[in-house]
User: Fold this.
Amino acid sequence: MTDLQNTVQRLMESFDDEINTIESLVQKQRELAEKQEEKVRETAFALLPLMEKIKDEQHYFIGNETDYRSTRGPILKHDKNENMLYIFSVQKQQPISLNLYDQEEKPLSYRKLLEAVEFPLIMKGLLITLTHLENLKKRYQENNEELDAELERFKNYY
Assistant:
């Protein structure tokens, strides 16, 4: 037998076992994807009272990797190629996509959200809600320091 024939023979002998292993891996992947969906859903709803308070106070939500701000809810991702924001809408209590060209909003299932946005990025985008007040306070303190420094620089000119 040639080397090729030997290789084919070995693969034929283990083919069914390999298919079973692949099917098990596919099933595990489905289960993990479902767990991610559930984790995102649970996290969003656990944070919802805080998100509603932030929205009621008319504060902007921010995202981790973007300069965009939103009144709709936490920004989960800015897709620069599609010019799209992925947001957890506080009002609708579900993920949405927001087309930045025409402001068209579309509801998303958690599965579709996870297809468009990586799980860690979604979680970071939701969890930034926990540090919203701290971040806001820090931003105002920095702005105040900058304004004060500008005044100090020109105080001797009058």
Q: What stands out?
A: The chain has one domain: 3-148. The beta strands are 61-62, 69-70, 75-79, 84-89, 94-99, 105-107. Residues 3-56 form the longest helix (54 residues).
